[in-house]
UniProtKB/TrEMBL annotation, chain A:
GO terms for molecular function: guanyl-nucleotide exchange factor activity; SNARE binding. Gene3D superfamilies: Ankyrin repeat-containing domain, VPS9 domain. InterPro entries: Ankyrin_rpt, Ankyrin_rpt-contain_sf, UPF0507/Ank_repeat_27, VPS9, VPS9_dom_sf. The lineage of its organism: Eukaryota, Metazoa, Ecdysozoa, Arthropoda, Crustacea. Keywords: ANK repeat. This is Ankyrin repeat domain-containing protein 27. ANK repeats lie at residues 479-511, 512-545, 585-607, 773-805, 807-839, 840-872. One of its GO terms (cellular component) is plasma membrane. The keyword Iron-sulfur does not apply. Pfam families: Ank_2, Ank_5, VPS9.
TrEMBL record, chain B:
SMART domains: RAB, RAN, RAS, RHO. Keywords: GTP-binding, Lipoprotein, Membrane, Nucleotide-binding, Prenylation, Protein transport, Transport. It is a lipid-anchor. Coiled coil: none annotated. Belongs to the small GTPase superfamily. Rab family. The keyword Transport applies. It comes from Armadillidium nasatum. This is Ras-related protein Rab-21. CDD domains: Rab21. The lineage of its organism: Eukaryota, Metazoa, Ecdysozoa, Arthropoda, Crustacea. GO terms for molecular function: GTP binding; GTPase activity.
Length: 907, 207
């Protein structure tokens, strides 16, 4: 961007050639020889032989390089923008730029400006130009973080007090009292910033005029970025506010586009990793606080597409669109507005504006909903967080349905063509095309509980046995989608009604744990949602594999109408929602609506008296309350308002609520049901790659199906059911416990009176199976803090080393997440590798140090955990503790380390 | 700012239906390359070219765009602030010429006469398949005040000419404008002057 430039007509060398040696020049032009001119700063007095070395006659053209012979008969070659001497290949002269001249007298000719004399290539004492080294370090290309800016400024300005000076100017703005109610106008803010920038620049440049022009540009950009980095917190919030309604709409669109794939956009990517790496690059945009840093982030993203060599130019926009969809960020327009408003130095730079325009075009394209209309009808793919990480690997459209009939069936469902659907389903039923074995069939039946033997359920089971009824209406495809799922997916109302009349399983879960109700909520089909709810038997509270209920899903996707439908329906049947219900990231419905900036939903949720108490102070795994993750100031002030109101009327409300609660729902504010990863950023996409490999392992969807059931059983605390599925028999627990030496004792005496009897069984492999769900059975037991179950599982051959799929964490990691000391000790007893590292390179000890769980640190260190081990950030446990401000742990570790050190030196 | 101490800075945007050869024209002009496939590297989406016309340096920032219909609505994002536009059609494709007419209408409506237009009838090496009448195209161009040129990215015909001519036009307009307004006042006051007090080396109106 800050490429070298100079006015050639003022270059001494050029003048010398053109004026003093016109004949030579004329010959070169007429023969179309290449003319090279060393840059102005290296040219001194010029001799004729030197001139002759700068007129190049093309000799031969190979694939990559062109051979030239200078007019002075020296041989050189041109390779990748460099001239290289044929004698000494280590020497080179770089081309800085090319300029085409059109002159009346001479016509057209090309001149190359180079960074040194070509003739220097043939001299014995060749010294490379020292300037070029500096160029690399301070080229704008390599600057993006605040550290880059600071180090560059300190390199270019010899004045250590400059930052103090800057901070003085900055405090002009930082100390301004901006009122929240009456936000300042952008134009006003821009002028303010402009003034401060001018002051800082003038301060620096007074003294530094000796720098060459390119350095001044770099310096200016650095100072500007430094200033804006420091003002980011003030300014960005106003950009967010200004763009709030645009971002809100865009977020809704982005959620509806989760299943878009590169084929929808006509992008022919041969290497999907190109989008993956681009996505990591772009998803980090909020980590950069200066407009230039953000710009660099976008530029890097676009640059990373270039590694995909077969990509055509026209795919730049679609591929950027796709990357944006897959990023899961909530404030695109705010970012764009911030960059555009607060760019000064580079504002008119053409590359800068080209890249910003491309970014803007991608956002505007998404915003126009054009894509939405094109793709909604193109096919079904699972909507879930998970599926968005899979790009093409999980696209049912790419799979073969394997069965023509199903294919046609889906097509009819999509068209809401009831008659045809009936024909297909009723015919196949009579022909019994899809026989199913009894066991799996039993699981599909709509019983009160899979083990239930009440009269009604008995009847159902018997009937299903007798009638040889095949499960066409509940047929599951490879994504475990039933026809009802599909009908809801396409919003085909008639089909949904028809299927419901056939008593299909309303609560069937697909591969990502979504029921038809979930899909309706996520996709925003209010009528279908109500239809499902009104036909009793639909579980309003069930969660998908990311721990989201229908309410949370619809709050994520931003469908006001469905939020209202769910809440009004619940009210009408006297059911009390638990608004404190958290998903796997610890987010409640209010968190989600607040994060994605859906004003109306937030407003509506806050109008529910109980939500204020149940959810407004709840913290997610990033330790944020709904207020903390508010998308913008407007949302934040809504929540703040509600909190104030709540405090006023807290007294009376609490009284009322306590009365209510006693009768109906018990709310556990500290409920941490689905905690899976406390530390990783919820909307951060890193380390999801592992997903790819594992998906292939789980070929057997039937096994997976059972696994989901087991996990769910454990989730709701139904251990007996879980163990039944696993075929593990447990005698009446607790009966003999007192007679053991220790509850965990493994001595021979104790194992005789062990509380569990182990029965080897046919489904044993299930116990270590990790399918489509992120974790296996043992993981779930750990997450539920269920020591007893863990023990039973471990004694029945559960592998304590098994890793979760996405984070690759072991049970020991999870027990640390749960801060459950008993579990941790139990696992250590089972000889688990306590130094096992997850995808981030974090060992359990790292995790302890991050969250500051001292008891865990001590237990681990005492059990011999490695203290000198670095994670992928290059931090040791001690450094992590330090970073996170857990100084007690730091002190403990330092003490331990020095003790260990002493020991080793003494011995 | 169209004029800086490094000469003129012009933004040129290429518009036209898909497959008429916009990308090919740019690549031929800037890198002197041609490919038979509808494929190019991404680097070509934004290219710069320095030329010098009778002692006047002109820096061209050339923006290629995607011709696909679905992206049509994004046009304004690309052509705003342009000094010139090259509207490309394929002489073997009547429809693509109609598209050019639409673009002319839109550009004139949105940017008035500030933008210089050039119309390129590309692929003249396929003269035998011509479907757009030569006279028709030339009269139309004259009517709307656009320079017309037949080009071939394949045989490198007229490519240099069309960019050169457009540059000349843009320089003319820039000069006219700088007569009306002194150069120092930048368009909307949004450009930051690095050093306020430094005397501006005024190379503005000299040749
Ligand atoms: N014969 C011939 N073919 C050409 C010429 N210019 C371009 N083509 C071919 O036309 C096709 C399309 O060229 P592109 O430059 O990719 O077209 P485009 O206008 O950029 O298309 P979009 O980017 O889709 O809008 C390619 O196969 C080129 O090889 C030409 O002058 N003569
Ligand atoms: Mg193109």
């Amino acid at each position: 961007m800050n490429k070298y430039d100079e006015v050639l007509s003022e270059n001494k060398f050029f003048k010398c050639l053109k004026c003093d040696n016109f004949d030579l020049f004329k010959e070169a032009v007429s023969q179309k020889y290449l003319i090279c001119i060393p840059k102005a700063s290296v040219t001194s007095n010029v001799q004729l032989t030197t001139l002759l070395d700068h007129i190049l006659i093309p000799a031969q053209k190979n694939s990559n390089n062109i051979d030239y012979c200078t007019k002075n008969n020296n041989k050189i070659l041109l390779k990748e923008g460099k001239f290289i001497s044929k004698i000494n290949l280590n020497r080179c002269v770089n081309i800085l730029f090319e300029e085409t001249f059109y002159e009346e007298e001479l016509g057209k000719y090309k001149v190359l400006c180079v960074d040194d004399y070509i003739s220097s290539l043939f001299k014995d004492n060749f010294t490379p130009n020292p300037n070029s080294l500096l160029d690399i370090k301070h080229s704008l290309k390599n600057l993006r973080t605040i550290n880059d800016f600071i180090s560059c400024i300190s390199d270019l300005v010899d004045d250590s007090s400059v930052f103090d000076e800057f901070d003085k100017y900055l405090s002009d703005i930082l100390s301004m009292p901006f009122s929240k109610a009456n936000p300042p106008e952008t134009v006003y803010l821009r002028t303010l910033v402009h003034k401060v920038l001018k002051k800082t620049l003038n301060y620096v440049l007074q003294e530094e005029i000796k720098l060459d022009e390119n350095y001044i540009l770099v310096l200016t950009v650095c100072i500007e970025s430094y200033v804006l980095h420091n003002l980011h917190n003030i300014l960005f919030q106003y950009s967010g506010l200004e763009m709030s309604s645009k971002d809100e709409k865009l977020n809704r669109i982005l959620h509806s586009l989760k299943e878009v794939t590169e084929t929808d956009l006509n992008v022919h990517v041969t290497n999907i990793n190109c989008i993956l790496s681009a996505r990591y690059e772009l998803a980090a945009i909020n980590n950069f606080k200066s407009p230039f840093g953000k710009f660099q982030c976008i530029k890097k993203t676009i640059d990373s597409f270039k590694t995909e060599s077969k990509l055509t130019l026209d795919e730049l926009l679609p591929i950027l669109v796709l990357t944006i969809i897959k990023c899961n960020l909530s404030n695109w327009f705010a970012n764009l507005n911030f960059i555009q408003t607060y760019s000064f130095t580079l504002e008119s730079n053409s590359e800068y504006s080209f890249i910003l325009s491309t970014f803007e075009a991608a956002l505007v394209f998404l915003f126009s909903e054009e894509l939405n209309e094109q793709t909604v009808s193109s096919g079904y793919v699972l909507t879930s967080k998970e599926s968005s990480f899979c790009l093409d690997t999980f696209n049912p459209r790419a799979h073969h349905y394997g069965n023509e009939i199903i294919h046609t069936l889906y097509d009819y469902i999509k068209k809401d063509n009831l008659e045809s659907v009936k024909r297909v389903l009723e015919v196949t039923e009579s022909e019994k095309l899809v026989p199913k074995n009894f066991v799996s069939q039993k699981y599909e039946l709509n019983l009160c509980h899979p083990l239930c033997v009440c009269n009604e359920c008995k009847q159902i089971t018997q009937k299903s046995l007798k009638s040889d009824f095949v499960l066409d209406f509940n047929h599951k495809d490879e994504n475990l989608m039933t026809p009802l799922h599909i009908a809801v997916w396409y919003g085909s109302l008639n089909i949904v009604e028809y299927l419901m009349s056939k008593n299909v399983n309303l609560n069937a879960k697909n591969i990502v744990g979504m029921t038809p109700l979930h899909i309706a909520a996520y996709k925003g089909y209010q009528t279908i949602l109500l239809l499902l709810l009104l036909n009793a038997g639909c579980d309003i509270d069930s969660t998908d594999s990311t721990g989201n209920t229908a309410l949370q899903l619809t709050c994520t996707a931003g469908h006001d109408s469905c939020v209202k439908a769910l809440i009004f329906y619940a009210e009408s049947i006297g059911y009390k929602f638990n608004f404190g219900e958290k998903n796997i990231n610890g987010d409640t419905a209010l968190h989600l609506a607040s994060f994605w900036g859906y004003m109306n939903i937030v407003k509506f949720l806050l109008s529910q008296p109980r939500i204020v108490i149940e959810s407004i102070r709840t913290k997610n795994l990033k330790n944020q309350t709904p207020l903390d993750c508010a998308h913008n100031e407007a949302v934040a002030s809504l929540i703040e308002g509600a909190m104030e109101n709540a405090e006023e009327s807290a007294h009376t409300d609490l009284l009322l609520l306590n009365l209510e609660e006693r009768n109906i729902v018990k709310i556990d504010p500290e409920q941490k049901l689905h905690d899976e990863d406390i530390y990783t950023n919820t909307y951060d996409l890193e380390h999801r790659d592992t997903h790819f490999e594992v998906r292939e392992n789980s070929s057997d969807s039937e096994v997976n199906n059972i696994l989901i059931k087991i996990l769910n059983a454990i989730k709701v605390g139904d251990n007996r059911l879980a163990l039944f599925y696993l075929d593990i028999n447990v005698n009446e627990p607790n009966s003999n416990e007192s007679s053991k030496c220790h509850p965990l004792c493994q001595c021979t005496d104790c194992s005789n009176i062990d509380t569990t009897t182990i029965s080897v069984n046919k489904k044993k492999s299930l116990i270590n199976f990790i399918g489509e769900e992120n974790y296996g059975i043992l993981h779930m037991a750990v997450l539920k803090d269920d020591i007893e179950l863990c023990q039973i599982l471990l004694q029945n051959g559960a592998n304590p080393q098994a890793l979760t799929k996405s984070e690759r964490r072991s049970c020991i990691h999870l027990s640390v997440q749960r801060e459950n000391i008993e579990l941790l000790k139990l696992l250590i007893k089972f000889n688990v590798d306590i130094n096992c590292a997850d995808t981030m390179g974090n060992t359990p000890l790292h995790l302890c140090c991050i969250c500051g769980w001292k008891e865990g640190v001590i237990t681990l260190v005492e059990s011999g955990a490695e203290v000198n081990i670095n994670n992928k950030d290059g931090s040791s446990p001690k450094e992590e503790a330090d970073k996170n401000g857990h100084f007690e742990i730091v002190r403990y570790l330092v003490r331990k380390m020095s003790e260990a050190h002493k020991k080793s030196t003494f011995s | 700012m169209a004029f800086s101490n490094r000469g003129y800075n012009f933004k040129v945007v290429l518009l036209g239906e898909g497959c008429v050869g916009k990308t090919s024209l740019v690549l031929r002009y800037v890198e002197d390359k041609f490919s038979d496939k509808h494929i190019s590297t991404l680097q070509a989406s934004f290219l710069t070219k320095r030329i010098n016309i009778d002692g006047q340096r002109v820096n061209l920032a050339i923006w290629d765009t995607a011709g696909q219909e679905r992206f049509h609505a994004l046009g304004p994002i690309y052509y705003r602030d342009s000094h010139g536009a090259i509207l490309v059609y394929d002489i073997t494709d009547e429809d693509s010429f109609q598209k050019v007419k639409n673009w002319v209408r839109e550009l004139r409506k949105m940017l008035g006469n500030d933008i210089c237009l050039a119309i390129a009838g590309n692929k003249v090496d396929l003269e035998k398949d011509r479907h757009v009448s030569k006279e028709l195209a030339e009269t139309y161009s004259e009517e709307v005040g656009a320079f017309h040129c037949f080009t071939s990215a394949k045989t490198d015909e007229g490519v240099d000419e069309i960019f050169l001519n457009l540059s000349n036009q843009m320089m003319k307009i820039a000069l006219e404008k700088s007569d009306e307004k002194p150069i120092s006042s930048s368009p909307n006051g949004r450009n930051l002057q690095v050093v306020e007090d430094e005397p501006q080396t005024s190379r503005g109106c000299c040749g």
